[in-house]
Amino acid sequence: MSTLAATGSTATVAAAAGPGPDRPTIRYTEYGIPHIIASDWEGLGTGYGYAAAKDNICTLADTYLMVNAQRSRHLGPDGRASPGQNQNTTTNLNSDLYFQRIKDDRVVERLLDRPAPDGPEPEVREAIRGYVQGYNRYLAETGVNGITDPACRGADWVRPITEMDVYRHAHAEIIMGSADALLDGQVNAAPPGASAAAAVPSASPSARQASSPAKTDAKTASRTDAKSAARTAERIREAMAVSREQGMGSNALAVGSQGVSGGTSMLLANPHFPWQGKNRMWQSQLTIPGKVNVSGASLLGFPAVNIGYNENVAWSHTVATVAPFGLFDVQVDPLNPTTYLVDGAWERMTSQRVAVDVLKPDGSLTQVARTLWSTRYGPVTTSMQGVPLPWVVSAHAVRDVNMHNLRALNSWFRLDQAEDVHDVVDILETTQGVPFFNTVASDRKGNALYADIQAVPNVTDEHARSCLTLTGQLLFHQSPRLPNVPPISILDGKRSACDWPDDPNAVAPGLLDPHKQPRLIRSDFVGNANDSAWLANPAQPLAFPRVMGDTAAPRSLRTQELILTAQNRINGTDGLPGKGFTPQTMGKLLFADNSRAADLALSATVTMCRNVPFGLVLVDGNLVNVSEACPVLAAWTSHDYTTDSRGSWLFANYWSFLSNGQGVEKLPWRVPFDPKDPVHTPNSLDTGSSAVRDALARAVLALRTAGIPLNAPLSDIQKVSRGGEQIPIHGSLGQLGVLNVITPGQVDGKPDIVFGSSFIQQVRFTAAGPPQALSVLAYSQSADPSSPHHADQTRLFSAGGWVTERFTEEQIAASPELRIKVLN
Question: What's this model's pTM, rounded to 2 decimal places?
Fold first, then answer.
């Protein structure tokens, strides 16, 4: 091994890394961003693995602990785990049981045995082989006791990894869209009268036919109880809405040739991912001369770029309104509830004993075992998003569209090499590997693409009409109260014909034909802010199967803000100079942190506040004087969530109490939603509603109780702890219609951001020359508090700054902070 002290000269880089380097080489530029170059995929993976481990070995080791079902063994059963999209959603024990079942079933091993496209392409296998070598090399050089991050220094669970660890991690990321909703219900499912821990396999089913006592009037009445179905559906929908509002999301905007100034196209990538744990993003550039040259970010541990750009195409992803799973309602025999009815005959559920090691308080190990149950459709679950699904007269089985999907690895490796947006569409259609994500892209030719082409359950509208249960109908169809909650199918498991049918045009069994999935290419703009595909561009509304989301339904305030931002900039009506996007205007508009909610409701709220008799409101048994709030809100004329804004925190609390987890259309508006004007309706807050007055009073009371002045600047309240430093963070909640989403909370008892803008990147293409990119990784490259890159980009983000990216060899060589690491 050798390390070169870089002088920043092109000659030094050429000597060390050359146009076709024999040895993987990492060139670090400003903010610790690695530019990795190698002569083949294995070498590229080696450089990536080494650099990723150097920055985040504790986060990665913790992830490998989780996917190998060993959290309880090392950390105890009661700790919290984050196996899905959200943070700390289950216990270590439940997480271990879930992943141990996947290991016992050899799900990942069987996928790896398949040739592409079902299994990984050769270049994927080579890069992952190299990644393992690079990760293990860094660990060997450092030693567990030499790790500088106290989160895992000296921990017995930090170990060299294998290729299987990486594939298990990849698979866990691909299925995370269903884990939060269904994991607990699967590992705790037990037949009536038994616990999951004590349940044992039932006797063989009898030869009784469908005319057996299982078919009783009581059972029929229970299954057709409309009130019960409506109550269950509403609870599930509400729980899914809360999870979606508080979890991962994203904005993405692609601008074509008619929408840019001084270029052919632009892309804004703005994912809202967790700031801690396995779903942190990490930035890099990956180059094999003549094969691939791509820059951007990926989820930790993926030796590819998930969101980024190459010489000709830039792309991003946003969380889609597709539920990557469905349920099947199976009628069970009340005398033998582990048998169920299909096509008039009884079938026996399969059972398996799943056991994991658990650390006891005295330091010794014990083993916890569960008997878990499955049907022909998939595992049995007794809850969804925490809402009980009792196993009594029927049981519910899960089919996960991504459980047998490693194709996503092929999707991202091929996207890294895409030539234009038409190539992007072809990659999405031929791999169908992207899990629960939209794709938004722009290319050098001036095209802007929106595509919701992914792995989707093949529940066509016709299939849904034929097979949905009563509860399933209520969950699947649009809700006037909670639009944009993913449509969830519960199908009639008594009929085998209600299973997801195979489509000859789909890549894998049970998937929806990719050609039926929405896409749009335009020369002005397309975008998405986690609503359905309907209004990717309002000038050309899209139609698609209901399983993919809603149409002609209210858009979120964040979607409205994204569309209006694009339209006003292209038209030159936003108060900024000129027309069309430039890197300066795109960055300024995102970090303006404007609140669409404030645009719509602040003025009316101030008027209402001033008209409250004597300024007093009786709410929740408290007499609250709101008069002090009126001038504070009136002075907040900017409607922004920049760090120096005053009144913004008061408005955020007020809006939270007013919306109370409901969709924007359920607020008290005088003008209701109109599908003919979806970007500007609903509007005109009804300040005569007592709900408006009470929400303001509750917000004033909450701030006073917390000791926060009503006019406190946002910088005093919303901040993160990095060592002994408190860094203020701008932005706010998506429900306020702020594009730069920030969800504040606490981590280890200190202020931090739980979700929000993570890797932000804007890319501009011109007719000739390299792409021009600006980016900022809001939580910085490293989770290690001792790293110089633990908070540097966080400070930059706080100040509204951007990193000017270095893409060409000449740009990399010119970095004044260039450091070179050659891996022999």
Answer: 0.94
